[in-house]
Amino acid sequence: MSGSVSYDLTETVSADVDVEVSNDARFRIVDVTTDAQVGDRGTLDATIKNVGATAAYDATVALESSSSGLALGQRASDAALVGSIAPGEEVTVPYDVSFTPTAPIREYALSGQVSFETPDGIPRADQGLSAGVTPLSEQTFAIEDVESTLRVGEDGELTGTVENTGPVAADNVVIQYADTAGNLIPIEQTAAVGSLDSGESTSFTLPLSVGGTAEPGLRTIDVAVTYRNDEGATRAYSDVVVNAGVAPERDSFSVAVENRSIDAGGTRTVEVTVTNELGEPASDLEARLFANDPLETGDTDTGYVQSLGAGESTTMTFELSTKDSATPGSTYPISLDFRYDDVDGDSQLSDTYRVPIEVTASESGGLPLPVILLAALVVGTGGLIVYRRRQ
What is the distance between the alpha carbons of residues 11 and 49, in angstroms, rounded to a whole number? Predict the structure, then answer.
């Protein structure tokens, strides 16, 4: 029907309702603490208080994390059987927890419930428990005051200071060479420095060997710091790099010859001053002299010294002679090399060192063979001319 009207009718009814107030146990989380750090495992202690009027029996406390950054045990939740809890009693329940390496420092929400039996044996559950927990910051280390004695083709050391910049103490701290550069070879892969409290620092020395084909200059070297946490588990902090200078290759020895001349057709002794440039002692040092035509070595072509300290010099004497065919004013090389034992007792052979020797005219007054032949030719030609004129 068009133009119809509708009405809403409301009716109010009054009634009495009986409400029973339960005396069952009720619970609240009154404290939560953890020693777990970001990127590591630890223990979470949750203190539960019975704020109800009666005791709870066979109580089980279950907690759950709603964040992927916090795990309880191997899952997001965990439960612990705590037995009976009297009214007003507090019980601290430990849980194994872990925070992911990317977890930010903030409060993480926890929810839970307590399942129990009343004194009459009736099962009950108090749900809606809630709390928050904040992890400790990540365990970190810093390496400073780095100095280097590294040199191309030699053994050297990387020294520095390692500081525990994390929030807790670290036991059995070890500095570990973690680089993959083929021309840097660790003599010792690790250097142990002991335990470090938070904020404490100590020095370390890491011996390295530099290959002969390495390029000199500033190098970035990866290192890692391993340690043991409070539970004795081994952990590693790898976000560490150090800058170290690699010096250019140097001669193992330097040689000096004061008198670098020899008479044509003559023989003389050559005194060679040898200096140890290794930066470490050399033992059983044997030198050998080599010469090419028209120079010749004599019976004394080797030298020996039992030990030569770093930077120390010694003088060795060799015998050298020239053939008559040597041309005065010309320069010819002599060569020396050295075989020795390093500080580790390993036998080493040095590079070859060349020293120029100048051939001079004999001071005895005699003429060199080319001059004598030329004079004989001139005299013979003159005699032939005189003879022909007389014919």
Answer: 47
Closest CA to 274 of 308, 240, 242: 308
Q: Which two tokens stand for residue 24?
A: 């069952």
Kindly state the tokens that stand for 286: 């044997």
Look up tokens 């080319």; give the residue: 370
Q: How confident is the model at residue 249 (pLDDT cuts 50, 70, 90)?
A: confident
Tokens of 16: 């009495």
C-alpha 103/C-alpha 98 separation (Å) is 10
Which residue in 315, 284, 287 sits closest to 301, CA to CA?
Answer: 287
Among 150, 140, 141, smallest CA distance to 243 is for: 150
Q: How many of the other CB atoms lie within 10 Å of CB of 188?
A: 12
**Using CA of residue 199, residue 205, residue 211, residue 217, what is the dihedral sign?**
positive
Whether the predicted pLDDT of 376 surpasses 50: no
Angle at 136 between CA 135 and CA 137, to 5 degrees: 115
* CB 72 within 8 Å of CB 34: no
Task: Say if residue 115 is exposed, middle or buried (CB neighbours under 10 Å; 0-12, 13-18, 19+).
Answer: middle
Alpha carbon distance 252, 338 (integer Å): 9
Cα separation of the two ends of the chain? 177
